[in-house]
Design a protein that fits this description.
With 295 residues, the chain is of the alpha+beta class. It has a single domain, classed as Sandwich (Jelly Rolls). It contains 7 helices and 11 strands. Bound molecules: succinic acid and fe (iii) ion.
């Protein structure tokens, strides 16, 4: 079974026809990567400063832009260049939003725009601060400080590498296979602990049982070196000048190589999924035999 779905049409320009929309949403919600081999954000010649090693500041992996705060973090740029970088990230956020609107118009009324990031660091050879931060190990996404409280994590990636180097990913097993293996290794949820995390500002909002188990899966998968070497994975090289869209909370993925990537995060309520039985929430509730969004 292929891990990619290439929709027919030109979603950068116009909405797909309705049967192609249905096929694309089916593929996406069933854990495929919706892949646009020929689509990319076009850059202006004066945006070459993006590829300068001096662009990043501090230890963070990514430069990120928060649409709510209107602020960029982790860049050393100032003045005119900072302004250009902000405009570029806003342009990418608009590009990603219009792709979603043309591919999955049903999502639009429910979509929350999260952060936009630029990832200027070569992944291969990077020394992660800890195994939990090591994205070369297959994992499903979950954020320790930013619970999604059940919302799906939908991400749009675009490889803009100027030397035509691919972004090399591996994709592992289905979410249900991952959850079946790793849930028994995750400690039980404690709402008391979740309250403490919030009171001491270790989480931006309340960590629900759903967030706890998702984070538990993320950490347990990355920690298990035997699993990392033995699990069946498929490699895919996303060429420079391509775009792909994926539910990273569902699809087990790792990034092995590559540099210069744009990424836009969106959040969506699980209740609006067309194929609800595929959602991490549904699968976890089924395996644990309880609701995970009530405290
Ligand atoms: C990840 O989400 O784990 C990393 C994806 C990437 O940077 O290519
Ligand atoms: Fe990830």
């Amino acid at each position: 079974m292929s891990l990619l779905y290439v929709p027919e049409g030109t979603p950068t320009k116009q909405a797909l026809d309705s049967s192609e929309q249905a096929k694309s949403i089916f593929a996406l919600e069933h854990g495929k990567i919706v892949y646009l081999p020929e689509e990319s954000l076009s850059l202006h010649t004066e945006e070459a400063f993006l590829f300068s090693p001096q662009i990043k500041a501090g230890k963070a992996k990514n430069i990120s832009y928060s649409p709510h705060a209107g602020k960029i973090k982790h860049t050393a740029l100032t003045g005119v260049e900072l302004n250009s970088l902000t405009l570029l990230l806003q342009r990418y956020a608009d590009y990603a939003s219009s792709l979603i609107a043309n591919l999955f118009p049903l999502y639009v009324p429910h979509l929350t725009r999260g952060r936009t990031s630029f990832r200027p660091i070569e992944i291969a050879g990077r020394i992660p601060a800890s195994y939990k931060k090591d994205d070369t190990r297959v994992h499903v996404d979950a954020f320790p400080a930013s619970p999604t409280q059940g919302q799906r994590i939908l991400r749009v990636f675009c490889n803009i590498n100027p030397d035509k180097r691919p972004r090399v990913w591996e994709v592992g097993e289905s979410f249900e296979q991952v959850a079946t293996q790793f849930l028994p290794k995750v400690a039980s949820y404690s709402s008391f602990q979740a309250q403490m995390l919030k009171i001491f500002k270790l989480t931006h909002s309340y960590r629900t049982a759903y967030d706890h188990y998702m984070l538990g899966l993320h950490d347990a998968m990355k920690k298990d070196v035997g699993y990392q070497t033995s699990v069946k994975k498929k490699q895919f090289d996303f060429p420079a000048g391509s775009t792909w869209i994926v539910y990273t909370d569902q699809v087990s993925h790792a990034a092995l190589k590559g540099q210069h990537l744009l990424e836009q995060t969106f959040y969506l309520p699980p209740q609006i999924m067309l194929h609800a039985a595929q959602t991490p929430l549904y699968v976890l509730e089924k395996l644990l035999g309880r609701h995970l969004l009530v405290s």
